[in-house]
Specification:
This protein is α/β, with parallel strands linked by helices and 649 residues long. It contains 21 helices and 29 strands.
């Protein structure tokens, strides 16, 4: 599909951007990685050489223009280079979720027809080999980490460094071929294919062009004044569009440095060491951080608790105004500076967010209380609204216009409109080309004029131009009395409490709302240890009467808050239960990006929902679960169902 030319001449593909960076910022750090406790760094000249060698190695192995190259593993510079090398060779990178199970991986590899797979280590190689009978299209597997690979049949296996060595050795023969392929690339060439999370069905392959990714990277970089001196920590799944934009798109455009942590377990420690200036995290990350903070405060002395709450109350009152440059009295400023010395700066340092100049959260709505907590500390946390199909950016919050109840104004180059049914539509240079091998879904999502249906319900404020998202359009409904039902609004309020990890609210077409609750094992386990409460498992702790009592208190507080909202006061929770297991992506209850699959949850736990509405006090249930090694099992439990006090609107 042809698109109007919107990119600067000579900078309309990633091979061209990489060539520019290797000259303009040759000595500046481009990628870092912590390995064996030591940070290693590569400048732009070194990155360009590594990418070039790998691209020639691909060609030597038989990679063709237009082929799809699957990349599987955690965030590592070598895997980002594998994507850039695929582009350099005229192929299309397709990153996969590293924790995808065999069925999910087989679907994506088969659907895109990948001939080459770049795998991080033995674990990922084993996954691909396990499904080889379902993916006959896979011809070559290139692995980076050699540990455990010595005795494998290497007929179709190659080590990453060996492929690079072959590329370097054949430079005279392969370089002209590579140059010809790169010359045929332009801004309309496919840049990457990313699969949606599959909330409602099979994941769809979103085809994004160079125009989509580079134009979005340029606009968003200029919006937040990103520069070569900035840095970002790459820890989110490489298969997610946000990571691709930050770690390849914006990185290659602005020249800033991408740092990869040593492992998911050391991520928080590595975050503190790097101290990024640009940071992105989904709401769940910020919820988890806040939970850990509150756990530590509960363990602190009475004096420390007193000072923490005293100064945090003050920070919540004046911190956001100071951050936005609004007038604040001298005495309030002085008290805030004292609080900064005693509380805020040490806390930000502990969280690894001391140097953050621009921080974003997206993926789903963040609880207003959680959002305001970080803003109060002086962290410039903002919300953005985006989708894979938009190359991330639909709306952003300009400095000085940051609010908890909106997702900002249209990003540069983006147009917005609201449909008759309240659904949000957009179009922009970042709008995707198509869904791969799925013209019907493409036509349903994007019309002939380029307007894309987001699937979200919302409205644009006339006074400010800010967009407010109510909920997923398919999830927004009506209670039996005709009032609005918006489950995500309630769930986000519940997840503000450190004890609540996840909540799923039901009520569409019914007289009242009910909820499933997942407790946070870390927070509630800490409470149990402090109070000498013995437990043997998640299920045991979730059923404890005191835990139920605490969750009931939280829900009743949320009901008081919801009662003040005239539009959504009917969404107060009438009854609840605490689930006997955590909702899990391996069980199909959540996506790999940790979004609840509501229909699957509702179908799977239909008996529990029925009991919530028929007035039962308890219910016995049995649930199938998937263990880490892929085996299936089941767990049985008798759950308590409790009534909750509701408040007059």
């Amino acid at each position: 599909m042809e698109q109007n030319k919107v990119l600067p001449d000579g900078l309309d593909t990633f091979p061209k951007l990489l060539a520019r960076n290797a000259v303009q910022w040759a000595e500046l750090p481009a990628y870092r990685e912590k390995e064996y406790g030591i940070w290693q760094s590569w400048n732009w000249a070194e990155v360009a050489e590594n990418v070039n060698a790998l691209a020639m190695g691909y060609v030597a192995l038989g990679l063709n223009e237009g082929d799809h190259v699957a990349i599987i593993g955690r965030n590592r510079p070598y895997l980002y280079w594998a994507m850039l090398a695929a582009q350099s060779a005229g192929a299309i990178p397709v990153p996969l979720y590293q924790d995808a199970n065999a069925e999910e991986m087989a679907y994506v590899l088969g659907h895109c027809g990948a001939r080459f797979v770049i795998a991080e280590d033995q674990e990922q190689v084993d996954k691909v080999l396990e499904i080889s009978d379902q993916t006959p299209n896979v011809e070559q597997i290139i692995y980076f980490d050699k540990r455990g690979m010595r005795k494998y049949d290497h007929t179709s296996l190659n080590a990453y460094e060996d492929v690079q060595a072959e590329g370097r050795a054949g430079n005279q023969r392969l370089a002209p071929i590579l140059a010809e392929r790169q010359a045929r690339l332009d801004e309309n060439s496919t840049c990457v294919m990313l699969y949606t999370s599959g909330t409602t069905g099979k994941p769809k392959g979103v085809v994004l062009s160079n125009t989509n990714i580079i134009a979005s990277s340029i606009a968003s970089s200029e919006f937040d004044n990103l520069a070569p001196g900035d840095s970002v920590l790459a820890y989110l799944p490489m298969a997610w569009v946000g990571d691709f934009i930050f770690s390849i798109g914006q990185c290659c455009w602005t020249g800033f440095c991408v740092a990869c942590p040593e492992s998911p377990e050391t991520m928080q420690h590595d975050l503190r060491e790097i101290g990024p200036t640009y940071f992105f995290a989904p709401p769940r990350f910020f919820e988890g951080l806040l939970t850990n903070v509150m756990i530590r405060i509960e363990d602190a002395s009475k004096l420390k608790k007193h000072w923490f709450h005293k100064y945090m109350d003050h920070a919540k009152r004046v911190g956001p105004d100071l951050l936005d440059g609004k007038p604040v009295s001298f005495m309030d400023r002085l008290k805030y500076r004292i609080g900064d010395f005693l509380i805020y700066s040490p806390l930000k340092n502990t969280l690894g967010l001391s140097k953050v100049r621009v921080g974003y959260t997206a993926g789903e709505a963040i609880g207003p209380e959680i959002f305001e907590f970080y803003r109060a500390l002086g962290i410039n946390l903002k919300q953005l609204y985006g989708q894979t199909e938009a190359s991330v950016f639909i709306t952003q919050q300009p400095d000085g216009e940051v609010r908890a109840d909106t997702v900002g104004v249209p990003s540069p180059g983006v147009e917005l409109k609201i449909g008759d049914n309240g659904e949000v539509f957009y179009r922009s240079p970042g709008t995707f080309v198509e869904y791969f091998k799925n013209p019907e879904s493409t036509k349903d999502t994007k019309d002939a004029e380029g307007w894309v249906a987001t699937g979200d319900a919302g409205f644009i404020e006339e006074s400010s131009g800010h967009l407010r998202i109510i909920d997923r359009a398919k999830d927004v409904g009506k209670m039996a009395d005709g009032t609005m039902f918006a489950p995500k609004f309630v769930e986000n309020k519940l997840k503000f409490y450190p004890n609540i990890l996840e909540a799923v609210v039901f009520g569409d077409g019914r007289d009242n709302c009910t909820a499933f609750i997942n407790i946070d094992l870390g927070a509630v386990g800490n409470w149990a240890e402090r109070n000498n409460v013995a437990y043997t498992s998640y299920q045991d702790l979730a059923a404890h009467p005191d835990v139920y009592g605490t969750i009931q208190e939280h829900i009743e507080e949320v009901n008081k808050s919801i009662a003040k909202d005239s539009m959504l006061s009917g969404c107060q929770i009438n009854r609840f239960l605490v689930l006997h297991k955590e909702l899990d992506a391996d069980d199909g209850e959540m996506t790999r990006t940790r979004k609840v699959r509501r229909k699957i949850v509702a179908d799977k736990y239909d008996d529990l929902i029925g009991a919530l509405y028929d007035g039962s006090a308890t219910i016995a249930t049995e649930t199938e679960v998937t263990y880490e090694d892929g085996r299936k099992g089941s767990i049985s439990a008798t759950l308590e169902l409790r009534d909750v006090k509701m408040v007059a609107a």
